[in-house]
Amino acid sequence: MNTVEPKSKALQEFAGNLKSLPDRFRESAFRTGAPTTDRTRSTFVFGNVFLHLHAVRTHRWSLRWTTTLGLGIMSVSAFLIALVTGVMLMFYYKPYPEAAYQSIKDIHFVVPTGRLIRNLHRWSANIMVIAVILHMARAFYTAAYRRPREYNWLMGMGLLVLTLGLSFTGYLLPWDQLAYWAITIGANIAQSPREITDALGITEYFDPGGFQRLLLLGSDQVGAEALIRFYLLHVMILPLVLAALMGVHFWRIRKDGGMVRPLDADARLAQRRSEETYPVFTEAPAKTYQLAAIVRGRTAQTGRGPENTVPSMPHLFYAELGVLMLTLLICLALSLVSDAPLKELANPSVPENPAKAPWYFLGLQELVSFSAFMGGIGIPMIVLVGLGLIPYLDRETEGTGRWFGGPGGWPLVRLSMVVGLCAPTVIEAFAIRFGWLREWFPAIPQLVVTVINPATLLTAIYALYSLWCIRRYESVRSGALALFTCFLCGFLVLTIIGTYFRGPNWVFYWSPAEWPKH
Amino acid sequence: MTTNAKEPRSRLDPEPVPRRDWLGLSSLWAMGGALLFGLAGMLKLPKAAVLASPSKKFRVAIPENLPVGEAFVPPGRAVAVFKDTDGVYAVSTICTHLGCVVKPNAEGFECPCHGSKFAVNGDVKKGPAPRPLPWLKVTNNGGQLTIDEGTTVPNGTKVA
Ligand code: HEM
Ligand code: FES
What we know:
Chain A is built from 23 helices and two strands. Chain A has 518 residues and is mainly α. Chain A has a two-stranded antiparallel sheet. In chain A, helix 17 crosses helix 18. With 160 residues, chain B is α+β, with helices and mostly antiparallel strands. Chain B has two domains: 35 residues; 97 residues, 3-layer Sandwich (Rieske Iron-sulfur Protein), CATH 2.102.10. Chain B is built from one helix and nine strands; from the N terminus they run αβββββββββ. In chain B, the strands form two sheets. Chain B has a five-stranded antiparallel sheet with strand order 1-9-8-3-2, with no helix packed on it. In chain B, strand 8 and strand 9 form a beta hairpin. The longest helix of chain B has 25 residues. Classes of the chains: A mainly alpha (518), B alpha+beta (160). Chains A and B meet through helix 10, helix 11, helix 12, helix 13 and helix 21 of A and strand 7 of B. The complex binds protoporphyrin IX containing FE and FE2/S2 (inorganic) cluster. The site of FE2/S2 (inorganic) cluster has 13 residues of chain B, from loops.
């Protein structure tokens, strides 16, 4: 006779459920199982809120590394690294003058791993600026901004401005000498429309410059009010807007039919067909793509299967993960060998000499040293508006998706590089050697200097050269190729001069070894 | 059947003014207007009504034997005080370009930020600064000098 009481059925079930808990949990979170077949690879993508910004299948052209150079993903990766390390810095940072400086010092010297986190934050921010600029250049040179991607180019411009804004506001937070004088200069650039209103004598009645400065500083001087405003911008407003815009940017990429590719992409890929592209539809597609036909434009592939595409999982995702790892690796390596700088505590009565902005603004600082309004507001505005107009003015189709595509092509870009590098070098050399209007005619009205100075001269030369290219090649795209190349080269030359050749009092020196000792 | 203008409209005929649309649209506009109005009010928030800045007036005692043409900078202030036979005057040392503090030297002032140079009387000699350095109000109360950094006077005004 069995002496053991028959077990309760419910208890048995309980024990069984407990045992299978890990499996059940995994099933509930990842409902469709391992991505091993085409079907489960698809559900893996659209069943996941983060992944489904991607299409389920990716064209093989998009996966060639020369298509994107991975620069967009590198920008996101750098942003993510900055986001995580930034939140960690917020545990200790105190947004109040002097306390801010002390807390950065604590983070650097006392907080466990604080120095590494701070370095990572700095370096990822710098990498992000570089990656975004290069990514813009890649989108430009492959003519990826053309229909239907005009709007996404504009979203990209917004991202560029926000990226620079984030870097600038972050530069100010340590409240050291660099930070303090950078805010001072930044706020006064915001005030520089006064250069015009003063010259016209209407500042008393209409003073947009003064208003902008007041809005930025929250006071008539640089102090606690300004710091808290920049802090708010840096940790809340700008990252939130940037993240939202990024979402739109990515969504649009999908809606615009993925990465841009040349018309003959399929033919060119066909020559090197790999075993990953197999026919997905063995019969002519009847149902699946009818629904997609209501989508406007070239997005829908009605009447044919997704030829030359591979499942995004794993092909695309592994590539993206690879770029993320690479970015992380670069940031880590740089953080281990080079520390983020921290100068002396801010001193409102003695500027750092020379007082230099972060490197990506040194080109602007060079322009500003000719005219505050033109260099700080006028020309940046012209550049932004010009960049934004490119996709609406270039409605051509030749060369879309090809590097340096368009009439003129690489030889034109090469010529433009020569023009783009020489023009600013010659103008700068002239201004450094002979001075400018103010030195020759001390009493000259400011308005004349504002309108005619090395910075505006350079802009005019670039513009004229590009117009000439439009005529020469009978193509707007050629003009755009010329102008964009000039813009990049000008940025490069001015940044290099500002970084390496300007010493105390913004005087030109061949090397820092010649700087006067003080 | 013939229709004539006087015939009463049927309930089924479309209304001349689509009443529902009108109601819907007008409430939409009203809501939009109210939101905009509220937003305009909130946009005033970041513009400070009261500026938290310390008093800009301060007293100075300049050295007895300050040579003519040499600047005396009161500690912690962005002002250079000069004394000559006509009297005393104070020149602001905040660069009119982008607000760095300029340094007095033998010929006047130089700015570390973008290389502006000024004469002793504040006139621009070189660089991007659009205006001369402003002169500040000095008052002499029986030998006690007070400088007001917040008030400018026409360049050339000296106080005996
Ligand atoms: C925070 C900054 C930005 C991020 C995170 C970002 C991210 C991305 C990513 C991940 C892609 C996919 C392809 C690739 O990796 O290249 C992409 C494509 C694109 N981006 Fe950006 N981007 C940023 C800024 C910009 C800027 C400044 C522009 C230009 C003004 C721009 C214009 C474009 C265009 C036109 C495409 C479509 C390219 C094509 O179809 O081939 N983006 N972006
Ligand atoms: S702030 Fe003095 S020259 Fe720019």
